[in-house]
Write a structure and sequence with these properties.
Layout (H helix, E strand, L loop, with lengths): L1 E8 L4 E6 L4 E4 L1 H6 L10 E7 L6 E7 L3
Antiparallel strand pairs: 1-2, 1-4, 2-3, 4-5
């Protein structure tokens, strides 16, 4: 799934993305670390992996979108 980086806190390595429908979804440091990234800037296109549904939905991986 693709999204756009919305917020990122380098101290906690957590943040949020905007899904293509405009809905925000937050991620924890474990999802950021799983992607192997060192930095994320708002506006960057990212690829995310998500598990769960509804209120239990969470991001498990954040990495840069590549073509």
């Amino acid at each position: 799934m693709q999204a756009t980086a919305y917020t990122y806190d380098p101290a906690s390595r957590s943040g949020s993305v905007l899904l293509d429908d405009g809905a925000p979804l937050s991620f924890e440091s474990s999802a950021f670390d799983a992607g192997g990234l060192r930095l994320l800037r708002p506006g960057q296109r990212v690829r995310i992996e998500v598990e769960g549904q509804g209120e239990a939905r969470r991001i498990t991986l954040v990495t840069l979108q590549t073509l």
